[in-house]
Amino acid sequence: MKTSSFLFLGLLLSTYVSAPVYAKSSDELRLELGAAFTKVAEAEWAGGDVSDLVQVLNSAASLIDKGDDASLKVAEDMIQYVSVSALEKKEEGVQATNYQNIVLGATLVALVASAAIVWFYGSRVFWALWIRTKKGWRVEAA
Amino acid sequence: MIDDELKLIALALIGMMAVIAVYPVLSANRVVEPFTELGVLGPNGKLGDYPKEVRVDEKFNLFLYLGNHEGRAQYYRVLAKLGNQASNVSDTQPMDAPIFASWDVLLVNEQNRTIPVTLSIGEAGVNQRLVFELYRFNTESAGFVYHERWTQLWMNVTKTT
Predict the structure, then answer these.
(1) Which residues, 6 or more positions from B55, have their beta carbon under 8 angstroms from its beta carbon?
(2) B145 and B94 in contact (C-beta within 8 Å)?
(3) Under DSSP, is residue B148 helix (H, G, I), strand (E, B) or coil?
(4) How many CA atoms lie within 13 A of B137 on its CB side?
């Protein structure tokens, strides 16, 4: 890496470190928390497991209550993380629900097919098996 | 005759298997009677021993208990309000009084939480009502709606001598 690149990275890092922590107000973050929860609720409705996301939002709510800039910044990051993750959870939920429906449909089709087979061929198959298992038997008069 | 009986027994077994396969899917996430628990516990975290006599600005400790049995994750807000004997609060109407504290709590289904709270009351009065009202976030209106649950403590607040 060239020296100029090192200088640029160093300058960027020092700017980031020395910059004041900008945080949104508590009221703004509470609105964003509500919006993030709406996404979480949609993900749960779609069948996603949102337990972890709810706990993260709970922690964010506690940090918002603290009210200092550093806590608000962390809360903001948490809310953003949940907003993004909720979409993934929703997608996972939809896929899981679809898979469950396919398995359920296939099971029902298999059961209906079994019922049809039993109805049309059940007796024939049963007696064929019966004869096969009992063919060695000898009937004697009591 | 025996053929028909065999068919019926086999079909009954298949029917039972169909019910076993379908029932868990249809009953999943179905809550017969959804509800939320809201309670106030005393300083020891138990029902009772509530503070009844406090001085103005004297800090006292309580615990709020919340339990979610709504079948889905919920975002709750508990508001603390101070009223008196003339104040009205009901299952349908929240109390018309200023809010002096609030707590936001998110719970997944079948989760509960006990929150320690420290409060103080800034004005003297006899038979003051410390009311805790429960609100629930409505995702359609994107706002909190009174969840028709509340609890209260009666207190006498005396001036500091």
Answers:
(1) B157, B158, B159, B160
(2) no
(3) strand
(4) 25
Which 3 state secondary structure label does DSSP give A20? coil
Would an 8 Å CB–CB cutoff place B126 in contact with chain A? no
Amino acid sitting at position A130: W
Residue from A32, A40, A127 whose CB has the most chain B CBs within 10 Å, to mutate: A40
pTM attached to this predicted model: 0.77
pLDDT tier, B80 (very low <50, low <70, confident <90, very high otherwise): very high
Q: Which two tokens stand for residue B47?
A: 């029902």
Residue A24, phi then psi, degrees to nearest 5: -75, 165
pLDDT per residue as tens digits for the range A95-105:
998 998 899 89
What is Dmax (Cα atoms) for chain A?
110
Chain A hits for B21, Cβ within 8 Å: 104, 107-108, 111
Q: How many CA atoms lie within 13 A of A90 on its CB side?
A: 15
- Distance (Å, rounded) from C-alpha B36 to C-alpha A123? 56
Q: What is the pLDDT of residues A19-68, one digit of tens each?
A: 455 568 889 999 999 999 999 999 999 999 999 999 999 999 999 988 88
The answer to whether the CB of A73 falls within 8 A of the CB of A23 is yes
Q: Is the dihedral of CA B76, B82, B85, B88 positive or negative?
A: negative
Q: With contact defined as beta carbons under 8 Å apart, do B101 and B80 qualify?
A: yes
- What's the DSSP call for residue A111? H
B104 interfacial to chain A (CB closer than 8 Å): yes
